[in-house]
Hints:
Two copies of one chain form a homodimer. Chain A is an alpha+beta fold. Chain A folds into two domains: 3-194 and 365-457, Zn peptidases (Aminopeptidase, 3-Layer(aba) Sandwich); 196-253 and 293-363, 2-Layer Sandwich (Alpha-Beta Plaits). Helices cover 36% and strands 21% of the residues of chain A. Chain A has 14 helices and 18 strands. In chain A, the strands form five sheets. In chain A, strands 1-2-6-3-7-17 form a six-stranded mixed beta sheet, with helices on both faces. A four-stranded antiparallel beta sheet of chain A has the order 11-13-9-14, with helices on one face. In chain A, strand 1 (54-58) and strand 2 form a beta hairpin. In chain A, helix 1 (3-9) packs across helix 4, helix 1 runs antiparallel to helix 14 (434-457) and helix 4 packs across helix 14. The longest helix of chain A is centred in the C-terminal third of the chain and has 24 residues, at 434-457. In chain A, 53% of the residues are buried. At the A-B interface, strand 9, strand 10, helix 7, helix 10 and strand 11 of A face strand 9, strand 10, helix 6, helix 9 and strand 11 of B. Strand 11 of chain A pairs antiparallel with strand 11 of chain B, so a sheet runs across the interface.
Amino acid sequence: MTPLDYLDKHQQRFIDDLCTYVRFPSVSAQPQHSPDVRACADWVALRCRQIGLETTLHQTSGNPLVVAKTPKHDPRKPTFLVYGHYDVQPPEPFDLWKSAPFEPRVEGRNLYGRGASDNKGQHLAHLNAVEAFLATGTELPVNVTFLIEGEEEVGCGGLYGFLPKNKELLACDAVVISDNGIPSLKHPTLTYALRGIVALEIRLEGPSRDLHSGLFGGTVENPAMALCQLLGKMRDRKGRVTIPGFYDDVQKLSRYERQQLAKLPHSDTSYRRLVGVPQLFGEVGFTVEEQRTCRPTFEINGLTSGYQGEGSKTIIPCWASAKLTIRLVPDQKPARIVAAVRKYLKSLCPPTVRLKISDGHGGEPYLCSPTSPLAQAALKALEAGYGYPGALAREGGSIPIVNRFRSELGADTLLLGMALPDDNAHSPNEKFNLDSFESGMRMAAHLWPLLAQAHAAD
Amino acid sequence: MTPLDYLDKHQQRFIDDLCTYVRFPSVSAQPQHSPDVRACADWVALRCRQIGLETTLHQTSGNPLVVAKTPKHDPRKPTFLVYGHYDVQPPEPFDLWKSAPFEPRVEGRNLYGRGASDNKGQHLAHLNAVEAFLATGTELPVNVTFLIEGEEEVGCGGLYGFLPKNKELLACDAVVISDNGIPSLKHPTLTYALRGIVALEIRLEGPSRDLHSGLFGGTVENPAMALCQLLGKMRDRKGRVTIPGFYDDVQKLSRYERQQLAKLPHSDTSYRRLVGVPQLFGEVGFTVEEQRTCRPTFEINGLTSGYQGEGSKTIIPCWASAKLTIRLVPDQKPARIVAAVRKYLKSLCPPTVRLKISDGHGGEPYLCSPTSPLAQAALKALEAGYGYPGALAREGGSIPIVNRFRSELGADTLLLGMALPDDNAHSPNEKFNLDSFESGMRMAAHLWPLLAQAHAAD
């Protein structure tokens, strides 16, 4: 029996397994679920052992993580690390769920439950594919190491401590992560780039206290007005960030990339309806998909100043603040961008207020070549699994662990998501599409021989 | 005995009376003080009757008010209405008071207690001056009507209902109000103009919900950025409001007014320290005193958008709002200014967000001639009372009742405040300076003959 036949034959059991997995309320953000989190980790380890993987449950500074390797790693074969997480988002608000979040329900070709697609179902597809090789006695042309952690939804703290101390254990030629999405079942996608981020908070301070706007208005700068004038200058009406040097390190999009991105399904009208704006707005000269994933942005995430209650209060507020995040694209460097933003803000800030800037977190953008042999092999695996040509995409968000794998393990990551846009990750009624589960398993089964070939040819 | 001798002789009793008056916790904003408010009104009525005034306690839609007239109004004499209020601001926060707010304490030449200067002490000075005439059998050359209300600190609701129904009862040639301040005991001041106000709230709405700034950033307008860009255009770096037509109705300051205003004590350095800003900022071409009182302003009183908690949240907020107040000067009209602001905001707002504007309260600016015979007589009374030449000032704030007296009674108001800048009105440790109390009584005693003369000559 081939691994693919094995996968076909065991579909119902895989669905039952996923139901079992989803029943663990492994909510990492909620201390009351700590026993459930540990029980879930134990179940993952047990499942890995049942398949025949060499499995260890590792304690970390936070929740335990599971490392499970295909038996007897062969140093002549390339090694791939499959990353996933068994922890899930909190299920609240409960009243918006049509069925209980930890009582999985299959309706048509969807399996509903918290964690079904984010991320239990997706890494289970990889485990099932490896099981298919081992159970049918088919030789795996690669070594596979599974790394399934329990704190992805709360910042990966335990893993970040674990990684530098276990580089040898986790050594690999590349990482495979299925923890993101595809536009549709007809557009299986390799995501080859992510945006980075820097977060800042700025605060303008004026008078030593809120002043009566009648008695003092007209003689002092209003910090809220100064903030508006300052931030308003950061982006022009063509959607360009005006900070000097901001675009200096932005890698130009190749014609190949633009062609590939243009193949992704998109309609301005339905996108506009999805986000609910009266009119789209973005950087002139780029498509919506390019704006969303290939271009850096300057966003205000929050504004706070003065009186926010009912009615009015006639004050000049003594301070005004803004929370900002800047999305970065390759090859922008967080430190360099923060320096440019600070310099520009300082140069524009009037002497009538005091400017305070605090740096928050930062993360580098990520890019791996979409034309590398491994990437091209992944595209073939997508087509073999889903029955439609593999597409190339970038993503606008960040997946910080990808940069850690690159810096700690020296390995690039292939992002091969299986979630659909309506899978409600992080929302009520999360689900996993069972067609994508099945196609994802087939993709995963095709992946290892294709990656092995590509690695040999490279 | 002359009225002035009488005032001298009874100083200690007047101080004791003010202490009695301050002991009433007549806090109109706090329902638990409702009995105290009524007891205080009764005391005012009793005090007026004791002096010999024809006194009525009137129920209103809110707290009672007292109308007390000098006996047998003579239709051949001019009539003046003295307005004051017996209600006080809440005393909180208690822990900042050096002594209990409703247990008056005399220290040196200051009497500490909530309401001491705002407004109990100030209208009591007028009552005492009239008492001096009546008790010494000195003929008052004018009719005086006292109107002491109990809701000034909560918007004068009761009085606003009472006024139109009692125009005859309150008919007068002019109103006298001592409920504001003077720069120092050496600068007794007639305030002849007040700024008006209009309040607005604007809200920009973008996406139908907060969007993930990674997944969507770059494709939709950020409402917080749009708000900053919109508001930032409302005022230039020379301190000028940029709304078309904004200054059309602003009355030019006469040379006489500018000369008079320049006589008021002022130091940019100490003013800057008072407000605590790194550098003053105001409309180019005007002094600080002129900016503060004679020029219209556009102020942001509050900004609200997106995430305001600790740390960062990577969202594009779905809306952003601002509370705005515009201070008006003669002859700007609230309705016309609101229309101009609405029109300008609409013309600048990009089509990528939805603009919502709600109007709040409005009040006309106030101006009475500083060169009229009555105003000049008031200046003489100030000099006679305080021993220093009377100064002319405008005020930057609004006193809405002044416009009501003009519209309902057809009477201008002479604003003859007695409070000093450090009297802490509305703040902990409110006090009244007893030198100003004494000088104020003398001013009030001089006022009636001087106003009578001026009225006859007019």
